[in-house]
Amino acid sequence: MRTMAGYDHDAIHPHRRYRSSLIAVAFSVIGSATGAALGATFTIDIFATEDPEAEQITVAPNDMIAYTVVGEMFSDDDATPDNEGLAGLIFDIVTDLGVTQPAATEIDPDVAAALSFQTSTGTSDGDDLLQLGGLQLILDDAVTDLAVGGPQVIAQGVLVAPDVEGTFIVAIPDDGTVLALVRQDDGGFLTGVATLEPGIGLTVVTDASLATGDGTSDGTTGDDTDATEDQPVPVGDLVLIIATAVGLGLFGGLAAGPVAGAVGILVGMMGVMAALLLGAG
User: Fold this and answer.
1) Tell me, what CATH number does 148's domain have?
2) Is residue 223 one of the residues assigned to a domain?
3) In this structure, are 64 and 187 located in the same domain?
4) Can you give the residue range of the structural domain that contains 122?
5) Are residues 190 and 275 in the same domain?
6) What torsion, rounded to 10 degrees, do the Cα atoms 98, 88, 28, 120 define?
7) Domain match, 158 and 252 both
8) 149 Ramachandran zone, left/alpha/beta (phi>0; psi -120 to 50)
């Protein structure tokens, strides 16, 4: 997973510090089973779905940008794992896009099935999206190994690019909450607080030259003129038209008398035949 590169949540929104109400709900529901600090780390990142490796994408103003959020749970010592996967996750997506962002399209079905309490695709707060995620209700059983052993898709959605050109940041801050499953000696489970480690996020560049209709985003040249317009008439077709008109005119010579009519017929037929031969070429 891409690593953090100096992302500063307050640099994007210095006047905002989010505290999720779902975090309080999580601790009150799970109660005394929650709160122990672990050596576990949960890495999380957001990227453009069409190009997962890209740290920066360039789009047209007002474009829709499909995104994916992935995460993975690690133990500090892989030889002696201290947890058995994700038990709860509450996180935000913050941007400086300046455009109202919609809720995520979905929480991944496997994640939603496991974190089934207060599962949320997020609440729009201006150009940010708050409180995505959910929690496991650990009563008699638990879903183990969620987001362990490889990246797990957490959520997917669409961002709206602003209508102006510029460079913008999309990221997940490190002030969310992650809970990990901890198996007890009696086979039951408690949960512990893991460290949330965001990735580098995504830089979005908007470029007006990519807007549909100017010939750059759809592979055209930007000329919407019908390709059949202003095309020269083939020489053979032109000769056919002219010769036919002349021939018909000479046919009209019949009205002027037998001799003129005979000449008109002869010349007209020759013209038509010549035109047909040239037109076929």
Assistant:
1) 2.60.40.680
2) no
3) yes
4) 9-210
5) no
6) 40
7) no
8) left
Could you count the other beta carbons within 10 Å of the beta carbon of residue 196?
20
Is residue 71 within 8 A of residue 43, CB to CB? The reply is yes
Q: Answer whether residue 216 is part of any domain.
A: no
- The pLDDT value recorded for residue 36 is 56
Specify whether the CB–CB gap between 120 and 110 falls below 8 A. Answer: no
Contact 158, 105 (CB under 8 A): yes
Q: Has this prediction a pTM greater than 0.85?
A: no
Helix %, strand %, coil % for the chain, to 5? Answer: 25, 35, 40
- 29-79 tens-digit pLDDT: 443 344 555 779 999 999 999 999 999 999 999 999 999 999 999 998 877
Question: DSSP string spanning 238-267?
Answer: HHHHHHHHHHHHHHGGGGG-HHHHHHHHHH
| Residue 258 and residue 151 share a domain | no
What radius of gyration do the chain's Cα atoms show?
Answer: 35
Question: Do the domain assignments include residue 215?
Answer: no
| Nearest CA-CA partner of 95 in 128, 131, 56 | 128
Contact 247, 269 (CB under 8 A): yes
Cβ neighbours of residue 137 under 8 Å, at least 6 residues apart?
A: 29, 30, 116, 117
Q: Are residues 172 and 127 in the same domain?
A: yes
Pairing mode of beta strands 36-48, 189-198? parallel
Residue 217 within any structural domain of the chain: no
- Dihedral, CA of residue 109, residue 110, residue 116 and residue 120, to nearest 10: -50
